[in-house]
């Protein structure tokens, strides 16, 4: 990966049990229970995926269950669930040519959540009472990932892990997992039908996987926790075609949003070359031009990037994400006050109420360095954090704003909050302790620092 996708990347722990629910074979990050994934935050892409998931979650009776969708900055085609989170690789977004294809993937993962598959797998693992089975599962994940990417060394490492476990127990457990995958496929079709959407995209996804021979080098179907793509197509096609919604096409406006998101990912991860390859069939379409503008900005050509972004805004004046990108370009050029105005326009046009976007306005004001504007910046960043408290980077700007006003205790508390939400509990506690020494004992801020101090770090 040539560059990070967007403003903020942090890491979250992923349990090895995520193996059981990946749509495609998990990649090398699943080699240990301590593996972590690069998580990316982007208001535009998050809003799009949330819109895809919302009706499916409602159909599954999970709309009030606090399900969170997390974007993983990885080019691999993958999606999986862990806890109350659905993880979607950015590679899965760029690889899906239609909204319906990605919606089918999301419906499959929601099927796992609704079916309680994770809990049942944990119970199955507990009953096995042997770490060899876990090692075998991890080995299978590595072996299949190696086969799909041509990484022979990874495949050999997987085979080595497999040799240490009980073959019979592994076959039993992997067979169990394939059953859960098939159940999630069928459930996905049900949810798609309930929401008036086609199951065609899900079939197209499996056809793509089959054509790409992702499973071709696996030594045995038992080495995969998933059914073979062609088997999944055979099992689903008749049911999918029975739906009255099978021939329904995605709305053109949604297709455009989907392709704009794909263009952004391509530009940030691969630059102009990836954008041109992705949109070779429509090099002058709006998504291709969007990706070109982003890649131009990343290449450091600010004036040219602004011209291209302004042309996009002229074509779609009410698209908030074009204004957001204008703000980012102006920030990169050191024009903070103009950037704040562009971000403010984006906030007004945004119908999702993105906390990320709201905080960006305050962050731009902080970057401007006008001390008299710091109270306003604090208010804006705090407002963004109310709806998105996990925005770790916003706390850094919040601390800077308090520092400009000489409120050192609040600055150190904001720094502690940022570390806490970023998962660095020990550093959070260090700054919370420092903050308490400067805050009034018993005050709300002092008590907030105390809560951080009393958090027990994970072993």
Automatic annotation (TrEMBL):
Coiled coil: none
Cofactor(s) in the UniProt record: Zn(2+)
A Pfam family matched in the record: Peptidase_M48
GO cellular component: membrane
Signal peptide feature range: 1-28
Domain Peptidase M48 positions: 42-238
Molecular function as annotated in GO: metal ion binding; metalloendopeptidase activity
Stored InterPro entries: Mito/Outer_Membr_Metalloprot, Peptidase_M48, TPR-like_helical_dom_sf
Keywords: Hydrolase, Metal-binding, Metalloprotease, Protease, Signal, Zinc
Statement: the UniProt record of this protein carries the keyword Signal: yes
Keyword Protease: yes
Gene3D superfamilies xrefs: Metalloproteases ('zincins'), catalytic domain, Tetratricopeptide repeat domain
Biological processes per GO annotation: proteolysis involved in protein catabolic process
Protein name from the UniProt record: M48 family metalloprotease
Organism: Aurantimonas aggregata
């Amino acid at each position: 990966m040539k560059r990070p996708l967007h403003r903020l990347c942090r890491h979250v722990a992923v349990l090895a049990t995520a193996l059981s629910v990946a749509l495609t074979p998990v990649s090398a990050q699943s080699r240990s229970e301590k593996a972590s994934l690069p998580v990316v935050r982007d208001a535009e892409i998050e809003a799009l995926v949330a819109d895809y998931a919302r009706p499916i979650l409602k159909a599954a009776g999970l709309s009030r269950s606090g399900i969170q969708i997390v974007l993983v900055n990885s080019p691999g085609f993958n999606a999986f669930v862990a806890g109350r989170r659905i993880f979607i690789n950015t590679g899965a977004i760029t690889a899906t040519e239609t909204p319906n294809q990605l919606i089918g993937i999301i419906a499959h993962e929601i099927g796992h959540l609704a079916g309680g598959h994770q809990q049942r797998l944990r119970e199955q693992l507990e009953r096995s009472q042997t770490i060899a089975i876990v090692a075998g599962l991890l080995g299978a994940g590595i072996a299949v990932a190696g086969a799909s990417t041509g990484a022979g060394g990874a495949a050999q490492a997987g085979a080595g892990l497999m040799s240490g476990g009980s073959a019979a127990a592994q076959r039993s457990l992997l067979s169990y997992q394939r059953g859960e995958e098939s159940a999630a496929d069928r459930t996905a079709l049900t949810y798609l039908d309930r929401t008036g959407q086609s199951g065609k995209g899900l079939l197209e996804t499996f056809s793509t996987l089959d054509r790409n021979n992702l499973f071709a080098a696996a030594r045995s179907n038992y080495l995969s926790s998933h059914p073979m793509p062609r088997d999944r197509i055979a099992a689903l096609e008749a049911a999918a075609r029975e739906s009255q919604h099978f021939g329904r096409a995605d709305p053109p406006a949604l297709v455009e949003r989907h392709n704009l998101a794909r263009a952004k990912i391509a530009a940030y991860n691969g630059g102009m070359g990836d954008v041109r390859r992705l949109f070779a069939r429509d090099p002058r379409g709006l998504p291709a031009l969007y990706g070109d503008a982003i890649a131009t900005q990343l290449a450091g050509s600010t004036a040219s990037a602004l011209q291209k972004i302004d042309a996009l805004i002229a074509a779609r004046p009410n698209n908030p994400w074009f204004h957001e990108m204008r703000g980012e370009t102006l920030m990169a050029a050191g024009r903070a006050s103009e950037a704040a105005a562009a971000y403010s326009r984006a906030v007004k046009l945004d119908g999702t109420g993105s906390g990320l976007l709201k905080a960006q306005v305050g962050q731009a004001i902080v970057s401007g360095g006008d001390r008299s504007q710091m109270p306003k910046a604090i208010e804006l960043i705090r407002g963004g954090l109310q709806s998105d408290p996990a925005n770790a980077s916003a706390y850094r700007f919040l601390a800077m704003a308090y520092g400009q006003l000489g409120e050192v205790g609040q600055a150190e508390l904001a720094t502690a909050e940022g570390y806490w939400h970023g998962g660095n509990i020990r550093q959070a506690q260090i700054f919370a302790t420092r903050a308490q020494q400067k805050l009034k004992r018993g005050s709300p801020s002092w008590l907030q620092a105390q809560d951080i101090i009393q958090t027990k770090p994970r072993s």
